[in-house]
Design brief:
The protein is an alpha/beta fold. The chain has a single domain, classed as Aldolase class I (TIM Barrel). The protein contains eight helices and eight strands, in the order βαβαβαβαββαβαβαα. Strands 1-8-7-6-5-4-3-2 form an eight-stranded parallel beta sheet. The longest helix has 13 residues. It starts with 5 loop residues before the first strand and ends with a helix.
């Protein structure tokens, strides 16, 4: 299945003191959407931004805002992020781990929550909630979680694989997630996004595995020629 390769620079690596200028760089680069990482300090070991920053970004651009909720109980905040101007809203499967199957070794860099079983009914409800606002619903998996979302794939328009442990930018790419990407592409025709440590050295592997949306933070904002950086990700 040949899908158009899309590039989504992540605002996590932007300079928030000049947010408008940073967003303009994304627009001018020819990238396809803007990825916005929302973290609460509970689901992941860091706090980033909330609806107010999403709203500020929306005032600066008409680009698609791809909002990734790395938070506990995301259903409580869907409406807030819709009203802030999100276009895509992605929740984590691990936020709805079933029973005691949620595993975490502590909130710290290099560790993330994982699960091998989710509350499918609850996940379906939240994805339907997002869709009821006419927004695109996405579902995300952390690096250590197996592919445990087959039962809800019909409800998700996009699946996001974390290729780093979420919480901090600038981490190295975890190549062991690629077999899961390949396995999913065999049974799923929707968009597959990969987020974390993406650069021009590993983009080819990611695309060959079946992903069609590449999130790039440090690689994009650290590049002198951002249009060239985007093209290097796309043309593999």
């Amino acid at each position: 299945m040949n899908k158009k390769i899309l590039v989504a620079p992540s605002l996590l690596s932007a300079d928030f003191s000049i947010l408008k200028e940073e967003i303009k760089k994304v627009e001018d680069s020819g990238a396809d959407m803007i990825h916005v990482d929302v973290m609460d300090g509970h689901f992941v070991p860091n706090i980033t931004i909330g609806p107010l920053i999403v709203e500020a970004a929306r005032r600066c651009t008409k680009m698609v805002l791809d909002v990734h909720l790395m938070i506990e109980e995301p259903h409580r905040f869907i409406k807030d992020f819709v009203e802030a101007g999100s276009d895509i809203i992605t929740i984590h499967a691990e936020a709805y781990a079933q029973g005691s199957r949620l595993k975490a070794e502590g909130l710290k860099k290099g560790v993330s929550k994982s699960t091998d079983k989710i509350d499918e009914a609850r996940v379906k409800e939240v994805l339907a909630q997002i869709k009821s606002f006419r927004k695109t619903p996405g579902l995300s998996l952390n690096p250590d979680s197996p592919l445990c979302i087959e039962g809800v794939l019909k409800d998700a328009d996009m699946v996001l694989f974390m290729s780093v442990h979420p919480g901090f930018g600038g981490q190295s790419f975890i190549e062991s997630i690629l077999p899961k990407v390949k396995a999913l592409r065999k049974i799923y025709s929707g968009d597959i996004e990969v987020d974390g440590g993406i650069n021009d050295k590993n983009a080819k592997l990611v695309i060959e595995s079946g992903a069609n949306i590449l999130v790039a933070g440090s690689y994009f904002f650290g590049a002198k020629n951002k249009s060239e950086a985007v093209n290097k990700l796309r043309i593999q």
